[in-house]
Amino acid sequence: MLGTNEVFIGGKWVPASSESYLDVRSPSTEEVVGRVPDAGAADVDAAVSAARLAFDEGPWPRLPPAERARTMELFLGELTARADELGRTITLENGTPVAVVRPAQVDNGLDVVRYYAESAAALELESPRAGRYSPLIVRHEPVGTVAAIVPWNVPFFLGMMKVAPALAAGCTVVLKSAPETPLHANVVAEAALAAGLPPGVLNVLAAGPASSELLVTHPGIDKVAFTGSTAVGKRIAGLAGAQLKRVTLELGGKSAAIVLDDIDLATAMARLTMVSLFLSGQFCVAQSRVLVSRERYDEAVELFAASVSALPVGDPADRGTFLGPLISKKQRDRVLGYIEIGRGEGATVVTGGGTPAGLDRGWYVEPTVFRDVDAGMRIAQEEIFGPVVAFIPYDDEADAVAIANGTDFGLHGTVWTGDVERGLEIGRRIRTGSFGVNGLSLDPAAPFGGMKQSGLGRELGPEGLHAYLDAKTMTVPAGTSLPGSP
C-alpha cells in the first residue's frame, strides 16, 4: 500500500499535525491502495507560512527569469524520470487505463512544464513605453503565494497547468490534491526536492473540503487557482472575492459537437467516440452533446452506437481496456441516476444504460448513448461527468448554433465538417473559451478556460503565465531617455 504519514512543507517531509487520514481506494477493485494524512488547520497554516516566507524573503521571486527556467528544467527532468511511476500511481488512484495513462495523464503535464520553463527563459520583466505625458516602464511582478487546488480526473496535468506558470512567474505554491488522488502528488513533491527547488516554493497537501476552505481563505494566500465543479467554483469565488484575492477558475462544461452534412459520417462518428468518452467521460471538455441534422440523424446515431459498443470496458491494468471505472461509488451512482433521469424525460437508450456484465467489483458504468433528446432535457443541460452522450437533432445551421449556445456552460465545442473555413465561421458564433474543427486538443501554447458558468480567467499559453503576474507602472520625468524606448 502506497502512502506516508508526512506532508511536504518547506522543502522537506514533516510529520502531519492531523491525526486523520485519507484512504485511497482503487476504482477497479474498491480496495484501499494508499493512505495519506488529511491535512488539518495546522498543516494548512504551516504550508502557507512556508510559501509566504519563501516569497517574502526567499530567492525564488528575485531570481532572473532565466535562472528560474534552469531550475524548472531540472524539475522537468526529475518528473520525466518518474513518468512511469506517475502513470502507475494515477492508474491506481483514478482508474485511467494503462494504455492511455501516459499520453492522457502524464506526457501532457510534462509538456506544460516544458512550455513554461521555455516561457520563463524568454520572459521580459520590464518594457519601456512612450506615455502620453512622460516616459514610463511597465514592470511585471509575481502575484505572490498561490493555492493550486486540483481535481481527481486529470490530476497531474491540471496540477502542472497551475504549478508551472506560477513557478515561471516567481510565485510560491501550495498544491492541494483531491482526496481521491493524493498519491501522485507525493511523487511531484519528490521531484521538486530532487530538482533543488528552494524550500517553500512548492508545498504539497491533501485535504477534504474543510481544510480546502481554510486554504482558500488563509490571509497568507494571494491567488487561488482551481479546477472543478461550477458549484465549488462559485463558493471559492465568493470567499476569494470577500478578500479581493485573484482567482482563476476552470469549471464545468456541457460541450456540443456540431456535425455538418458535408462530413463523412463514419469517420466523424468514430473520432467523436474518442472525444466524447475518453477517460470514461470524466473530463471537462467531453463532447457530451452531439448535434446532427434531422436528415442524417438516424444514420449518425447508428454509426456512433456501433462504435461505442465496440469499446473495450474493463480492468484499467489490462492494456486492451479503453474505458475504465468511474472514480467512486458516489460518482457511479450519480451517473446511473442521470441515465434514469434521461429515460424518465423520454429519451431513448440506444446502447448501454447500466453496469457492464461481468464487472461486479469496481465502479463501472456502460458507455451510454441517448437518442430522441430534446435540447431542454436535463441530460442535455447538466454536466453528468460520465460515459453518457446525448444525440440532439437540429433543423439548420442557425438552429445548431442556438442549441450549442443554449446551456449555462461555455467551455469547449467542436464542429465536424469537410470545409474548415465554414467550421471556423461556426466557431466564431459559439460562446465557448475554446473550439475545435474536426477534433479537440489542449495545446500548452493556447489559452484555455471558459465563458459563462464554465469559469473565470485562462490557463495555458502566455495568458496562463500573465495570470500569475501583476503589472506595475513606473513613470519618469518628461524628457528622460529610457534604454530601449521606442
TrEMBL record:
Segments spanning the bilayer are none
Q: Which Pfam families does the protein's record reference?
A: Aldedh (PF00171)
> What positions does UniProt annotate as the active site of this protein?
250
Identification of the protein by name: aldehyde dehydrogenase (NAD(+))
Keywords from the UniProt entry: Oxidoreductase
| The protein's Enzyme Commission number | 1.2.1.3
Stored InterPro entries: Ald_DH/histidinol_DH, Ald_DH_C, Ald_DH_CS_CYS, Ald_DH_CS_GLU, Ald_DH_N, Aldehyde_DH_dom
Keyword match Oxidoreductase: yes
Q: Which organism is it from?
A: Pseudofrankia inefficax (strain DSM 45817 / CECT 9037 / DDB 130130 / EuI1c) (Frankia inefficax)
Q: Where does the Aldehyde dehydrogenase domain start and stop, copy by copy?
A: 13-473
The family line of this record is: Belongs to the aldehyde dehydrogenase family.
Extract the SUPFAM superfamilies matched here. Answer: ALDH-like
Q: What is the enzyme's class at the highest EC level?
A: oxidoreductase
Q: Name one GO molecular function term.
A: aldehyde dehydrogenase (NAD+) activity
Listed under catalytic activity are: an aldehyde + NAD(+) + H2O = a carboxylate + NADH + 2 H(+)
